[in-house]
Amino acid sequence: xxxxxxxxxxxxxxxxxxxxxxxxxxxxxxxxxxxxxxxxxxxxxxxxxxxxxxxxxxxxxxxxxxxxxxxxxxxxxxxxxxxxxxxxxxxxxxxxxxxxxxxxxxxxxxxxxxxxxxxxxxxxxxxx
Length: 128
What we know:
Helix 1 (23-33) runs antiparallel to helix 2 (38-45), helix 2 packs across helix 3 and helix 4 packs across helix 5. The radius of gyration is 22 Å and the shape is flat. The protein contains 5 helices and 2 strands; from the N terminus they run ββααααα. Strand 1 (4-6) and strand 2 (13-15) form a beta hairpin. The chain is 55% helix and 5% strand. It has a two-stranded antiparallel ribbon with strand order 1-2. The chain has one domain (4-125). The chain is mainly alpha-helical.
């Protein structure tokens, strides 16, 4: 069985014919790609209500070579798509976001700064 994912607007296909996923693994990946967390994806794909079980399933799934290979193929396509958007998008916000995403992933993401103030208390100043 040949699996192909087709994008809506570009009609580009991602050929994943060599990777055979179960129906539940396919649902799990689909939920991840839809933006859900790994655990939430397992809760939905594997019809479980136990959070610990779902976490274990998600952890095991993400260690499976076939799932890693599938996600790798899709991520390669996604990087190409982001690069294409950064150059050819008609909307300036889309171009900006695509370029920002490329820079973030290349290690040029600005460092998040957190200001913290501390008060040093001497041992003899502590009270119960």
